[in-house]
Write a structure and sequence with these properties.
- The protein is mainly α and 137 residues long.
- It has one domain.
- 80% of the residues lie in helices and 0% in strands.
- The protein is elongated.
Length: 137
Amino acid sequence: MIGSRRALQVLTATLGVIPVATGLVGLLGLRDPLYVHFGVVPNVVLDSNLRFFSGVWLGVGGAAFWTVSGIERKGPMFRALWSMIFLGGLGRLLSILDAGLPPAPFLGVLLLELVGAPVFVLWQLRIEAEYVAGAAS
């Protein structure tokens, strides 16, 4: 059933693959195929920051996987992760306003970050409330 605990777990695990995979690739810094494709000029500071934030992003993916088991009891971590993703979406929106539109796939990601994040948080809160109500019975 859509909206179920199991569906939330499956989607969380599936979406957790994204930061793990892109975090690992991002650890290549400016050698990441995305940046090579766009011809980003080598820059030590940018490379260092990309690798650092890719490591953080990799950690977000690992933490997402950690929330899957017992997702109804791991609300604070789950909400913190989606809050970070939402804030990242705000940063992406600022980039659009400042630098222009990115390639189309990034707009889909932006939708997940700004619209999906609140939906996932509310979904988890409902699952958590059902768990607490069941435990209190």
